[in-house]
Design brief:
- The chain has a single domain, classed as Aldolase class I (TIM Barrel).
- Helix content is 41%, strand content 15%.
- The protein has 10 helices and 8 strands.
- An 8-stranded parallel β-sheet has the order 7-6-5-4-3-2-1-8.
- The mean pLDDT is 96.
Length: 251
């Protein structure tokens, strides 16, 4: 069975509550009937307001991160239980900005992945190499380690709830992007890693998105590659005029 394309918007630290609701309403109207799986991840402060806008539509509500424990003395953190309470269905974990700016390790991300799955949440797991790692020829090694470590003790039964997002760090927010061929090659590597971790052929069943300066101009070239199943969109997800054409890339 062909894998379904999955287009997700990571709004990062943008949008007041009012702005988030306005954009969510525009997307609900513009993406009716879109055949692809869709998700938006507003900032934490806007989740409660956006939830009723997307409820019952073809757009999933996502969060950009979560704590590695359910509750307790963790000032400033947001729990998976709080996210579920708001109607959040999916959570982005291991984004390069969390890894690089906030020091999140594969071990910590793995704890979050397991907790999210335990609570019935879908996960978008981000992996990808820095420019320095790529220039040293270590891209495959880095991505293999990240996938392997972040999926430790995740059962094959839970794999359908996992989407992997390959995001070359050097292409995020820089305007640069990997060529479709470069991106597809790393997606193929990830599938082989999954075959090694679980069983032969399992990698072909897992949805793997590309993230890294995806724009309307390059979306079709990327999303029609054989191993690329969708996009985790950053800056271009902040406006209807740029996100909608990506979601409808094949129309």
């Amino acid at each position: 069975m062909a894998r379904r394309k999955y287009i997700a918007g990571n709004w990062k630290m943008h949008k007041t509550t009012g702005e988030a609701v306005a954009l969510a309403k525009e997307l609900v109207d513009s993406l009716k009937g879109c055949p692809h799986k869709l998700m938006i991840a507003p900032p934490f402060t806007a989740l409660a307001a956006v939830a009723p806008v997307v409820k019952g539509t073809n757009i999933l509500l996502g969060a950009q991160n979560m704590a590695s424990v359910e509750q307790g003395a963790h000032t400033g953190e947001v729990s998976v239980l709080m996210l579920k309470d708001l109607g959040v269905q999916s959570v982005i974990l291991g984004h390069s900005e969390r890894r690089i700016l906030y020091g999140e390790t594969d071990e910590l991300i793995n704890k979050k992945v397991i907790l999210a799955l335990t609570q019935g949440m879908e996960v978008v797991l981000c992996v990808g190499e820095t420019l320095e790692e790529r220039e040293k020829g270590k891209a495959e090694e880095v991505v293999t380690r990240q996938v392997s470590e972040c999926l430790k003790e995740v059962s094959e039964r839970d794999l359908p709830k996992i989407t992997i997002a390959y995001e070359p760090v050097w292409a995020i927010g820089t305007g640069k992007n990997a060529t479709p061929q470069d991106a597809d090659a790393l997606h193929s590597v990830i599938r082989k890693v999954l075959d090694t971790l679980y069983r032969a052929g399992i990698g072909e069943t897992v949805t793997i998105q590309y993230g890294g300066s995806v724009k309307p101009e390059n979306a079709k070239d990327l999303l029609t590659m054989p191993n690329i199943d969708g996009a985790l969109v950053g800056g271009a997800s902040l406006k209807k005029e740029t996100f909608v054409p990506i979601a409808w890339f094949d129309r």
